[in-house]
Amino acid sequence: MSNDISLPIAAPMARTTRSPIVEAQSWLEGREFSAEMPLLNVSQAAPMAPPPLALRKEMARFALEDDAAHLYGPVLGLPALRSAVAARWSAIYGGTIEQDDVAITSGANEAFTAVMSTIAAAGDEVILPTPWYFNHKMWCDMQGVRAMPLPVGADMLPDIEDAARLIGPRTRAIVLVTPNNPAGIEYPSELLTKFYALAREAGITLVVDETYRDFDARDGAQHILFRQPDWRDTFVQIYSFSKAYRLTGHRVGALTASPARLAQVEKYLDTVTICPAQIGQHAALQGIETLDAWLAEERAEILARRRALEDGFAPLAAKGWKLHSTGGFFAYVSHPFARPSSEIARELVEKAGVLLLPASFFVPEGDKRGDRDLRIAFANLDCDGLNTLISRLAAFEG
After folding, report:
1. Distances in Å between the alpha carbon of 357 and those of 134, 213, 344, 375?
2. Can you tell me the distance from the alpha carbon of 293 to that of 299, in angstroms, rounded to the nearest whole number?
3. Confidence of residue 157 (pLDDT cuts 50, 70, 90)
4. Are 334 and 393 in contact (CB under 8 A)?
5. CATH of residue 105
């Protein structure tokens, strides 16, 4: 394969950094890990187990018995799944969501790129709290959209007044993620309402990515944005079935927005994927209809792992580590060493058998938090595994 760097590459793409997940995985090349110290991979927040057996059997039945499983479907997704999402979201949030407000996408990332393509173009600006979700920043860079960093405070939450000062004539949207990726923090409902009001007053769009909603520690609705009488004019929500039902390989997400915006999204989806995969959509529908009890158990397990990390953090705190926030699948921590997190993360692979991500992947170049912070995607470790992780990090001398 040629690696000729003289190939003509469009400037925005050439300026876009490599995916942090791909970069981190490259640190493992040529390495072997012993049985005594197997690799602890806490770099990626994707379920590492397949869907529950009952769901896999239903997916297999659908693939074998229904010809529609192998054909193109509606660009915006199966009507039955769109209807089920609308009904479920209406019940969860206490608002009114119709089938025509919902599109099914090939994962939450496609939901984001699709809707952002209707919101911002080259030369426009989008406000992203930092630390940001790297794929959101990568999309901005690829499109020539300027990502305006909004640094969070010590509580890992963005400040509404700081955001207001960033809004200018080219600002098109504010993008929030809750539970947050990478920090894990769960945004208070009151804060989301303030951001909604700010976006509405400024005439821009508020995009809220709720990929990890099903693992929020709070019961009930996480916000009241769908209860706003004119929410369709301002608010867009993104969701992922991949995390809820372990459908990462099947790529199923959902986008909730006004029908007028989805009419534009449809153009994008028809150009990129034509339609979401039928088997994955069928699985998502089965999940909504039959897996509430199973999903509740999954949530309880993730919350138990979160508590285990929080409760077991004392040995790290004694060594100068700091736990800033937890939630969803993530913990955001500071290390006590003089060297930058980008060096510490690579050395942890070699000396501790731990793969995690440095905060330099989540902040603008030159941001000092990138030097001291790390992201731990803890959801794929059980409580014993988390204890091992803490022990290895505590033993690491940097």
Report:
1. 11, 22, 10, 5
2. 10
3. very high
4. no
5. 3.40.640.10
Nearest CA to 308 among 234, 243, 382?
382
Q: 1: pLDDT confidence band, cut at 50, 70 and 90?
A: very low
Is the torsion defined by CA of 209, 94, 222, 92 positive or negative? Answer: negative
Q: Report CA-CA distances (Å) from 348 to 158, 320, 378.
A: 30, 16, 16
CB 326 within 8 A of CB 309: yes
Does the pLDDT value for residue 2 go beyond 50? no
| Rounded (10°) CA dihedral 17, 120, 87, 217 | 50
Computed over every residue of the chain, the mean pLDDT equals 95
Residue 310 C-alpha from the chain's centroid: 21
Is beta strand 253-256 parallel, antiparallel or unpaired with respect to 102-105? antiparallel
Determine the Cα–Cα distance for residues 44 and 380; give it in Å rounded to an integer. 9
| Shared domain check, 331 and 254 | no
pLDDT > 90: percent of the chain = 91
Average pLDDT on 170-178 reads 98
* Residue closest to 41 by CA, chosen among 303, 379, 373: 379
β-bridge partners, 357: 375
pLDDT in tens, 307-343: 999 999 999 999 999 999 999 999 999 999 999 999 9
In this model, does residue 256 exceed pLDDT 80? Answer: yes
Give the domain extent around 377. Answer: 11-50+294-395
In a domain, 5, yes or no: no
By C-alpha distance, which of 212, 211, 248, 215 is closest to 48? Answer: 248
Q: Are 225 and 255 within one domain?
A: yes
Note whether 280 and 252 are within 8 A (CB).
yes
Q: Could you say which of 290, 324, 345 is where a domain stops?
A: 290
Per-residue model confidence (pLDDT) at position 48: 81
Strand order in the sheet with 253-256: 102-105, 253-256, 235-240, 205-209, 171-177, 125-130, 146-151
How far apart CA 174 and CA 235 sit, in angstroms, is: 10
Phi and psi at 86, nearest 5°, equal -60, -45
Helices (H), 27-133: 53-65, 79-93, 108-116
For residues 372 and 358, what is the distance between their CA atoms, to the nearest angstrom? Answer: 8
